[in-house]
Backbone:
């Protein structure tokens, strides 16, 4: 059985093109539950055609910028928190305009329990097959759901549109919406994986792990989906996990100019056509004093690159964001060529 692991759940929030899935009401664990999964091959022709037609309809609405129509077709829990979908549609309208959407994967998930499930796990396909797919869905309400992934091409850039649908009577309503590119900064998953392995072979684990993160991100159409290949990738990247990888509970300490800066989060992100490194740290000064905050940001960037010089070849630039106790932040970008 697949391990179904995600090594960096803390990291995915930063992707502006992903709308969170909202599938259930309350996080109430069920005492007993039944979970079944059907693949496209398990469905009869009519059921499969209905799901494909529903997905095509939602794609056409997205391409037309029909926010009202999408919201009206959404389940109440998603309609009441629809900002993420609107943002995803707006940001990707150039990718949808003039494009064609082709369904590439369909799964039907059924929670036949009488109560919401705190963690619903579905295993789809032939046991121990390389094509076996798992879904791990938090807070899943009783009901019948479908996960449909479409390859969208012909617009600004190719993307994957994954829709989670919930059956309500005779129709399928929108319950989740995620758009992900097939490339980041002009490179695909295999390129980032190759980069990660090169850095790992040189013992440069910080750059390696950051490249693994990008490869992992590109390997998943949607965050709730897992495959045996992703299990292998997760194992491989965990072997390169830096000993001083930062977190909010165990920050990385960077020394610069007589100050200690406490870094809580680092991750790669696309800025335009470049891949940049993002650093978040606990503000050392009042961020309303932007001149002082800027100087702190520059000090953090230089200290990070000095500590890990391999970052110079991994990223085009670095963004440091000073975060105060209320969550407000102040950010500054420095091109890598200007880091002295």
Residues:
């Amino acid at each position: 059985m697949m391990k179904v692991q995600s090594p960096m759940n803390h990291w995915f929030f930063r992707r502006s093109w992903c709308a969170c899935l909202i599938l259930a009401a309350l996080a109430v664990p069920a005492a007993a539950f039944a979970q079944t999964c059907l693949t496209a091959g398990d469905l009869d022709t009519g059921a499969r055609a209905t799901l494909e037609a529903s997905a095509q309809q939602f794609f056409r609405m997205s391409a037309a910028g029909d926010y009202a129509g999408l919201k009206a077709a959404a389940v109440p829990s998603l309609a009441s928190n629809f900002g993420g979908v609107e943002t995803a549609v707006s940001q990707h309208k150039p990718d949808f305009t003039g494009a064609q959407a082709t369904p590439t994967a369909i799964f039907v998930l059924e929670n036949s329990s009488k109560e919401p499930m705190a963690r619903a796990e579905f295993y789809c396909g032939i046991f121990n097959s390389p094509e076996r797919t798992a879904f791990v869905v938090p807070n899943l309400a009783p009901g019948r759901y479908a996960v449909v992934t479409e390859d969208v091409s012909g617009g600004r850039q190719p993307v994957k549109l994954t829709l989670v649908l919930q059956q309500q009577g005779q129709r399928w309503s929108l319950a989740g919406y995620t758009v992900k590119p097939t490339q980041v900064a002009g490179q695909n998953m295999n390129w980032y994986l190759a980069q990660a392995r090169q850095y790992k072979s040189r013992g440069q684990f910080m750059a390696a792990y950051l490249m693994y993160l990008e490869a992992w991100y590109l390997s998943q159409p949607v965050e709730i989906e897992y495959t045996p290949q992703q299990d292998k990738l997760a194992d491989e990247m965990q072997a390169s996990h830096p000993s001083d990888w930062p977190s909010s509970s165990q920050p990385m300490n960077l020394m610069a100019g007589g100050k200690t800066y406490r870094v809580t989060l680092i991750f790669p992100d696309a800025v335009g056509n470049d891949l940049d490194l993002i650093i978040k740290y606990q503000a050392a000064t009042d961020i309303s004093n932007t001149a002082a905050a800027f100087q702190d940001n520059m000090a953090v960037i230089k200290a990070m690159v000095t500590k890990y010089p391999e970052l110079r070849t991994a990223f085009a630039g670095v963004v440091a964001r000073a975060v105060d106790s209320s969550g407000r932040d102040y950010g500054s970008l420095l091109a890598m060529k200007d880091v002295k």
Q: What stands out?
A: The longest strand covers residues 259-271. Residues 189-238 form one domain.
